[in-house]
């Protein structure tokens, strides 16, 4: 049997603070927007096979 | 294919199915191969993970699995005071396994698979909320995921000596 797939570890202390800062300070990114649009386009073109 | 790189029109994606032969699949990683050949149907049949096959000329050349996950926080009193409505769990989808046959590695298939997974999850989150995509990356693949806009999910178990690095992709991109 292969190694099990485990849940993402719980964030505590400094790690949790860093995470909260990153989501509080999340800003729009044009590069990410382009990437997300590309993901949508790629999925749209293969989803007919699902 | 153009310049040795896969084009979307070269591949199709299918949910895990016995219609496709898995015995010849070899991604060079015993754990991933074993997951696909021995465990994947059990994961899927028991509702633990959905597994998708990437097909080229009727051959399985790659696969990935998706399942629900969460980014969980252990909040302290100071967090509850500082943040108006703190959440202790952020819903996520996990790319639990991703493998590409050795013969087809280095041809842009990994990025296509990530884009398919992100596109699929973006569709699904219209109906059931999801904030992050998570992955446990091999050390050698961390830069690949960074190029796909993932960031390291640092946690107390994270050290450079571990074989796997927890990473996350934030599906939110607030408008300007």
Please give a handful of descriptors for the protein shown.
heterodimer; A: 50 residues; mainly alpha; 58% helix; B: alpha+beta; 7-stranded mixed beta sheet; 4 helices; 7 strands; 30% strand
Per-chain topology:
The complex is a heterodimer of chains A (50) and B (176).
Chain A: H1 13-24, H2 30-46
Chain B: E1 12-15, H1 30-45, E2 50-56, E3 59-72, H2 77-82, E4 89-100, H3 109-124, E5 132-138, H4 142-147, E6 151-152, E7 164-170
Could you describe the 3D structure shown?
- The complex is a heterodimer of chains A (50) and B (176).
- The model of chain A has no long low-confidence stretch (mean pLDDT 91).
- Chain A has helices at residues 13-24, 30-46.
- Chain A contains 2 helices and no strands.
- Chain A has 50 residues and is mostly helical.
- Chain B is built from 4 helices and 7 strands.
- The longest helix of chain B is centred in the N-terminal third of the chain and has 16 residues, at 30-45.
- Chain B has helices at 30-45, 77-82, 109-124, 142-147, and strands at residues 12-15, 50-56, 59-72, 89-100, 132-138, 151-152, 164-170.
- The mean pLDDT of chain B is 91.
- In chain B, strands 1-2-3-4-5-7-6 form a 7-stranded mixed beta sheet, sandwiched between helices.
- The chains are: A mainly alpha (50), B alpha+beta (176).
- At the A-B interface, α1 and α2 of A face β1, α1, β3, β4 and α3 of B.
In order across it, which strands form the biggest sheet of chain B?
Answer: 1-2-3-4-5-7-6
Shape of chain A: flat
Written as H for each helix and E for each strand, in order along the chain, the element string of chain B is EHEEHEHEHEE
Structural class of chain B: alpha+beta
Q: Which sheet architecture does the biggest sheet of chain B show?
A: 7 strands, mixed
- Our Rg estimate of chain A from Cα atoms comes to 17 Å
């Amino acid at each position: 049997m292969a190694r099990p797939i485990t849940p993402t570890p719980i964030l505590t202390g400094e790690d949790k603070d860093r995470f909260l800062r990153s989501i509080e300070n999340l800003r729009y990114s044009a590069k990410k927007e382009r990437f997300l649009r590309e993901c949508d386009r790629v999925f749209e073109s293969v989803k007919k096979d699902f | 294919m153009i310049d040795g790189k896969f084009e979307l029109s070269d591949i199709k994606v299918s949910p895990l199915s016995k219609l496709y032969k898995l015995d010849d699949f070899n991604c060079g990683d015993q754990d991933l191969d074993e997951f696909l050949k021995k465990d994947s149907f059990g994961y899927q049949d028991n509702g633990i993970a959905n597994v998708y096959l990437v097909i080229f000329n009727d051959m399985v050349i790659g696969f990935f699995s998706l399942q629900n996950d969460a980014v969980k926080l252990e909040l302290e009193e100071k967090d509850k005071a500082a943040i108006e409505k703190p959440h202790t769990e952020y819903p996520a989808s996990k790319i639990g396994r991703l493998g590409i046959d050795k013969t087809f590695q280095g041809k842009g298939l990994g990025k296509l698979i990530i884009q398919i997974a992100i596109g699929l999850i973006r569709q699904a989150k219209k109906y059931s909320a999801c904030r992050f995509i998570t992955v446990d990356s091999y050390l050698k693949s961390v830069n690949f995921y960074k190029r796909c806009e993932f960031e390291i999910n640092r946690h107390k178990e994270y050290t450079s000596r571990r074989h796997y690095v927890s990473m996350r992709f934030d599906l939110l991109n607030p408008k300007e």
